């Protein structure tokens, strides 16, 4: 968040009322922040309430504040409407009560499209209506690395295809986090070890680091899939055994502090069922707490391990899955859509890499294949990379795998489609086709080595005489080869489900794996030149 | 139901109290039936209540009776405990009230294992503990055919592998059901056409026919997967548009009449979402009604069309799915198990046949393949046959396809396994293996044409030195070829997940599709003769 301009009289006015500090102008969907001085005695993390009521016409939000240590309290607010907002604080502490103010919300800058929401049943868009297609990556511990590594991670992301990062709010237990110089930023609670944690007090230095990481991602235009809870404690710190009261307090603090970031997504947990002392009722409760406390209703999900959470529950906005088989064929993702009736993000599909653990041994080809399967199934996938020499999924740094370039290529194809979110077509029978029936077909052949593809489409939305053009896509070599040929469809004789090209055309394919076709309707009046080349047989 | 023996004094006594007629001895899980004379004026189907309270020690059941026309009321009860049962009726009609009696429940005969229940999370067993592995078939309209066809269906079932039949309580609209000589048995309601249905009165002739069909299946040892509601009305009869009040009354009557049959399963609907004027709340309500009214808690599910019901709901005992892709690979069924945490029966996987509709065009090979995939995925499947010359799925009669023999072969393999319900093994990574880790592995290669299989097993439950024997199974040609060789496992060098044979053995495979392997632990002391034949390389 940038403080753009603070005029002196307003600053004076605010300071006069209390030790408030805030901006007077902010663009839509940025963070407006109020700073208040208040009591520092006792334990302000527990028992002190602070809420801002923000109004602009018929828009009214209640946004909780949080204690930031040293007698400093803050309220962060994300205005989602242009014009004048006024606010008034309430608190159970006199010093924090009844602070008033106003600010101007200006139009968003070019790259600010607002938070991501669900579009329709199965896809996403930014709040300004721009489609958002998640192409995520996983960098679990990136906030807890040294400054140089973090800077390198940010630079890598900038030129990567990834527009969502999954990461842990609390790192896994590792000796270096206890012993290293960065330990002050690693623990959300006061203390340094299991012996002296104070789970009732948060560690402001930890959160300041996390603030900075959230801002960095936001400035890159990258969504932060922020994972609130995780196992991986190895019995060392006790963070996964702190009990539901601590869990509630932590979740509530996180929401108070980060909900105003337009790029936040709430991932309740990574591999939730590996936290053996928490059951689904506990997760339900935390979901509902986040749902209740987040004024902007950012996306909410949870990432499973060996007991799959019920993603049909109403507080879950989308499916965040770890189930590798789902992406071994396009129909897996399509089944999940039909079961959950929500967007499906395959957030863990194994990682490209060469480590001993089999979850980190995918080839670049296999990772790319799984991404394509997720897309053709009408959903999405998340990347990760685990080469021995470069543990991106843990620390970030540099990407060395071969899949990111192919994922970038796929993202371009997906984002350039003219029909919006890709829907599986005729998917109870066909398993390799997504797009929009009648208009746009992306057909993926996976590991099949096709020598030709007969021009046959499912009949839905087709009529005799509709014309199509086609491109051959090599998903691995990243080429798109347009065919200079027009296909005109007629019903397939003897088959009530299909249309074919009226000349019974086939498309010659190169007999290699990982090929796809893109077939697009030609609008009336548009022309495709047929130069007689022999791509067809 | 057979009346085994009615002694005259008891008969007299019962007749004296009211016009009651019932048996004095009945075997466990058979139908004990009380017949009462009562009012026939007005509409006894609506507003007359009749319930029997049956007690035997600490077992007490409330079983609703039903009106059977002509002033006759019945209560059917399924005793599930041997010994003396007493009963007492209550009613809002004086003539039906306060009927008392008792009978002896004797031990079940050899083929009577009781109703089928869920065993553990994913499998089934009869109430006496005998495992039940569903190998179902579909004969939607068999109760509504002429006597000869019905007899032929029963004879066919007798020598078939099928131990469950899915069929409709109400047939689809067809002209012949309106016009034919059998129409009296076709409609559950009084009337003959849309113009004169009385949805408040049931048609006893229809139900007497259904009674007989239920008995026939029970006597065969075949479970009746009785489908209460269906679309397929084509706007002709209005049975699918009668409204929820009629639906409730019909469901309640069906439960009162058939719950005492040990072989009944409640299938709330076929293709439920094609009944466009019913939503999931309606289905929830009907499920709960059946759950509340069935004293014996027979299995309950619903068969989906294009909107998948939420099978996690507590009143659903198992998954009854129509989603063909699920059975195109073993992992589909395994995913459903992990999502729903209930037994998965793929109740419609397309049908073997040659009709124009693509849902009825499977080869016998493909049907068999899909059955194996369901089993290897840790679930079950249901057969159907739709040859133009022999519409088994509609009418029954004779089976002409090639899959039933292979399904019989599969059933034998499944039923002879020593470990109970087959569980997918290492199924997040492996997709072709089910059984019980450490003891029993059924490995299915589907369409892969393997020339050899390296002896490699997932490490779970294995230890160095454990010995195994193996059989090659040709699932299409129905042969089991034991290998005269002992495999002794050791950890696989360089792989933390696998064990291999200590001699790095492979098994030579015939390079054909539809092959499987069965690998069984050799208990200490057991021996397998190695005659040096060259099945191994």
UniProtKB/TrEMBL annotation, chains A, B:
Domain Apiosidase-like catalytic, residue spans: 122-379
Superkingdom in the source lineage: Bacteria
Location of the DUF5605 domain: 431-520
Stretches assigned to the DUF5060 domain: 26-92
Cited InterPro entries: Apiosidase-like_cat_dom, DUF5060, DUF5605, GH, Ig-like_fold
Annotated Gene3D superfamilies: 2.60.40.3950, Glycosidases, Immunoglobulins
Protein name: DUF5060 domain-containing protein
């Amino acid at each position: 968040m940038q403080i753009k301009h603070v005029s002196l009289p307003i600053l004076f006015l605010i300071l006069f009322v209390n030790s408030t500090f805030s901006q007077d102008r902010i663009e839509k969907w940025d963070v407006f922040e109020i700073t208040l001085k208040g009591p520092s005695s006792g334990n302000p993390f527990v028992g002190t309430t602070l809420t801002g009521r923000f109004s602009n016409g018929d828009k009214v939000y209640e946004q909780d504040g949080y204690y930031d240590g040293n007698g400093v309290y803050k309220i962060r607010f994300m205005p989602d409407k242009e014009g004048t907002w006024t606010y008034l604080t309430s608190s159970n502490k006199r010093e924090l009560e009844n602070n008033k103010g106003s600010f101007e919300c200006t139009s968003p800058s070019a790259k600010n499209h607002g938070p991501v929401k669900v579009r329709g049943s199965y896809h996403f868009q930014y709040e300004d209506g721009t489609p958002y297609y998640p192409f995520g990556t996983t960098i679990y511990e990136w906030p807890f690395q040294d400054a140089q590594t973090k800077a390198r991670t940010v630079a890598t992301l900038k030129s990567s295809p990834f527009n969502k990062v999954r990461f842990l709010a609390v790192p896994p237990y590792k000796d270096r986090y206890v012993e290293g110089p960065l330990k002050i930023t690693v623990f959300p609670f006061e203390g340094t070890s299991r012996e002296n944690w104070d789970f009732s007090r948060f560690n402001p230095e930890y959160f300041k680091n996390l603030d900075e990481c959230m801002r960095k991602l936001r400035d890159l235009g990258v969504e932060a899939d922020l994972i609130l809870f995780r196992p991986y404690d190895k019995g060392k710190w006790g963070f996964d055994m702190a009990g539901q009261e601590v869990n509630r307090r932590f979740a509530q603090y996180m929401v108070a502090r980060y909900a105003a970031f337009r790029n936040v997504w709430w991932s309740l947990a990574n591999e939730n069922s590996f936290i053996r002392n928490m059951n689904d009722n506990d997760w339900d409760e935390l979901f509902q707490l986040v749902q209740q406390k987040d004024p902007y209703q950012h996306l909410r999900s949870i990432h499973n391990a060996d007991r799959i959470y019920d993603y049909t529950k109403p507080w879950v906005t989308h499916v965040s899955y770890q189930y590798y088989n789902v992406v071994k064929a396009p129909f897996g993702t399509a089944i999940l859509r039909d079961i959950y009736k929500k967007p499906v993000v395959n957030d863990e599909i194994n990682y490209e890499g060469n480590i001993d653990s089999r979850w980190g041994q995918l080839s670049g080809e296999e990772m790319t294949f799984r991404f394509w399967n997720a897309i053709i199934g009408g959903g999405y996938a998340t990347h990760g990379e685990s080469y021995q020499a470069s543990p991106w999924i843990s620390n970030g740094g540099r990407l060395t795998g071969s899949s990111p370039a192919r994922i970038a290529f796929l993202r371009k194809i997906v984002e350039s489609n003219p029909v919006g979110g890709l829907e599986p077509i005729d998917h109870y029978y066909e398993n390799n086709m997504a797009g929009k029936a009648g208009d746009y077909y992306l057909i993926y052949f996976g590991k099949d080595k096709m020598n030709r593809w007969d021009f046959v489409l499912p009949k839905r939305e087709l009529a005799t005489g509709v014309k199509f053009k086609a491109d051959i896509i090599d998903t691995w070599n990243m080429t798109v080869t347009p065919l200079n040929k027009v296909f005109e469809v007629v019903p397939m004789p003897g088959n009530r489900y299909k249309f074919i090209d009226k000349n019974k055309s086939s498309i010659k394919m190169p007999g290699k794996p990982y090929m796809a076709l893109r077939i697009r309707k030609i609008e009336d009046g548009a022309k495709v030149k047929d130069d007689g080349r022999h791509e067809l047989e």
